[in-house]
Amino acid sequence: MSLRVSLVLVIAACWIAIGASIVVKQLGQTERADQPPFFFTLSPDDLRHISISSEENSTSWHFREDERRWYFDDEKDVPTNLYRWGGITQLLGGPRSQRELKKTIDDPALYGLDNPKLSITVRLRDDRELTVEMGNLTPDGGAHYASQSGYEELYTVDYSWGDVMLRLVDELPYPEWFYTMDPNEATEILLFEGNEVTSGYGFDEDVGEWVVCDLPASAAPCAGTTPADAEVLMDYLTHFGNPIIDGAEVLNLNDPADYEPYGVGRDAPYVHIRREVEVRELLTEVYRTSMIIGDVTPDGNNRYAVANETQDIIRVDKDWADKMLAMFELQQ
């Protein structure tokens, strides 16, 4: 093969490569252009405050930089549930719209935007605020009509994005220790001291009454033959089911020794409630609600506690906690 032929082949190969790269680039640009636009694109790390309002409820949260955790605005020192909150800031960082319907919203009422179903406002670290409002579902039910404050365009946003946001305000993402409990669901009360069961009460379904349990308990709920004072127990369960929580003291403890300075180590007074919840006919689920009660806080207003086996130490009202402790002195 002559040198001239070789040069011609090399030049031809170069032009083919350049042409292929142009085609690939153009295809990539076309694919990106065909993707739905964003209302906005934000770094989740820039979010500092989130507020969400539905037709019935409204809630807001703030970010504590020193702890890298999100907290409720309306509750003192109550963080969000990490499991429920996971991924929320990513979703809020860029709510992808399905498509732009109109450059200008002619009549907000036609799309439910005169009285939005959902309004979401985020504030950034530089104090800028952005608001997305969501109206009615589209006729096919696959999206919500939506708009962004400061802009006139009408968009649609996938219904699933709106459903996630709506659930945040209708089913608040509280931590597991921020609980309430229906006393009528309880079927067993066990009181522990020194890591041993010191007394127990079980609901005997066969006779429909509470009994003092024979210890050590051999079944759940525990059983016995001595009737218990049902009125006292129901009062106790009602009290237990409505804790007065002042907020979190310390979060995410891993070492058992870290609990000891707060008086909530393994030997502390511990209340265990077994609950049975009928999910549907012939299906009952069993839950357990618990509280370890520790020392009085330095201000004398609260006691330290650990609820529902979490790794967080919380503060509960001292009078509320003292009534829980009084049960340990009750003799049947």
What does this molecule look like?
The protein has 332 residues and is of the alpha+beta class. Helices cover 22% and strands 35% of the residues. It is built from six helices and 17 strands. The chain has helices at 3-34, 82-85, 88-92, 159-170, 230-240, 318-326, and strands at 47-54, 58-64, 69-72, 97-102, 118-124, 129-137, 143-148, 154-158, 186-193, 196-204, 209-212, 226-227, 245-250, 270-280, 283-296, 302-307, 313-317. The strands form two sheets. It has a nine-stranded antiparallel beta sheet with strand order 12-11-10-9-14-15-16-17-13. The chain is elongated. The termini are far apart. Residues 1-36 have low confidence and may be disordered.
Distance between the termini: 108 Å
Q: Count up the helices.
A: 6
SS elements, strand count: 17
Question: Going across the major beta sheet, what is the strand order?
Answer: 12-11-10-9-14-15-16-17-13
Class from helix and strand fractions: alpha+beta
Main sheet? 9 strands, antiparallel
Percent of residues in beta strands: 35-45%
